[in-house]
Design goal:
The protein is mainly alpha-helical and 110 residues long. The protein has helices at 8-14, 28-44, 83-107, and strands spanning 64-66, 69-71, 79-81. The chain is built from three helices and three strands. The protein is elongated and about 65 Å long.
Length: 110
């Protein structure tokens, strides 16, 4: 998936989460350096971090959800689908099935 490449239609579709960031570091020193660089970058484009949606610090052992994925510190399952993503997918499938049943009965197809 390329960001900002190709036609305008593809760019609009691919750039959906371009304002969401995740930065993972192993040490506090790395974290401080990256946060400083991030703040400089945001200032350069006249943007700010949202005060209630920004978390800078240690990750919980249970992990966290980010744009539909579950990220954990466990090396085996570092990146999996978030539970909410599964639920949304199941609900969408159920909704499509119900639409299909109504359409089928309307058309009197066996």
């Amino acid at each position: 998936m390329g960001f900002g490449l190709g036609s305008a239609h593809n760019s609009a579709r691919n750039d959906e989460h371009m304002d969401d960031w995740i930065i993972l570091c192993k040490t506090r020193y790395q974290l401080r350096a990256v946060v400083k660089l991030m703040n400089i970058s945001l200032q350069a484009v006249k943007q700010t971090k949202h005060p209630y949606k920004t978390y800078i610090g240690r990750c919980k052992d249970a992990g966290f959800d980010f744009v539909g994925y579950r990220i954990t510190p466990n090396p085996k399952n570092t990146l999996t689908l978030a539970w909410k993503t599964w639920v949304n997918h199941f609900n969408k499938l159920k909704q499509l099935y119900e639409r299909w049943r109504v359409l089928r009965s309307t058309l009197n197809v066996g």
